[in-house]
Automatic annotation (TrEMBL):
Pfam families: Lactamase_B (PF00753)
Organism in which the protein naturally occurs: Bacteroides uniformis dnLKV2
Protein name: Metallo-beta-lactamase domain-containing protein
Domain of life: Bacteria
Signal peptide (residue range): none
SUPFAM superfamilies recorded: Metallo-hydrolase/oxidoreductase
Cited Gene3D superfamilies: Ribonuclease Z/Hydroxyacylglutathione hydrolase-like
All copies of domain Metallo-beta-lactamase, residue ranges: 26-107
InterPro entries: Metallo-B-lactamas (IPR001279), RibonucZ/Hydroxyglut_hydro (IPR036866)
Length: 120
């Protein structure tokens, strides 16, 4: 798990529970497509980037499900990279507590507060 696979000339993905895309803009600069499900995924992504001599220039979120944006905060704190999301997804990405509120009609019970439902 967390091996990198090349799928195009400048495109890769990290084989993880929620696949993380990589677009290599230059030999040294990449954009992530999603960031994984939690801080630990973020740590693994940063390790892969470092091993390959890559600087993360930004994170592009495809949608706001917790398993796709869970590594955002950690990666951004470590790199200062911007995070991009479109439309209403931008609000859900910025305020991750919104998603479980929409799913469950309010803040989720403790038993439902895990990395798949609420960003830690």
């Amino acid at each position: 798990m967390y091996e990198i696979e090349q799928v195009g000339r400048q495109s890769y993905y990290i084989n993880s529970p929620a696949k993380i895309g990589i677009y290599r803009q230059t030999d040294a600069e990449i954009y992530l497509i999603d960031s994984g499900n939690d801080k630990e995924a973020g740590k693994k992504v940063l390790k892969i980037a470092k091993q390959n001599g890559w600087t993360i220039k930004g994170i592009i979120n495809t949608h706001s499900n917790a398993d796709h944006i869970g590594g955002n905060r950690y990666i951004q704190e470590q790199t200062g990279c911007p995070i991009f999301a479109g439309g209403i997804e931008a609000a859900f990405t910025r305020y991750p507590q919104l998603e479980p509120s929409f799913l469950y009609g309010g803040y989720p019970f403790r038993e439902l507060r895990n990395c798949l439902n609420l960003i830690q």
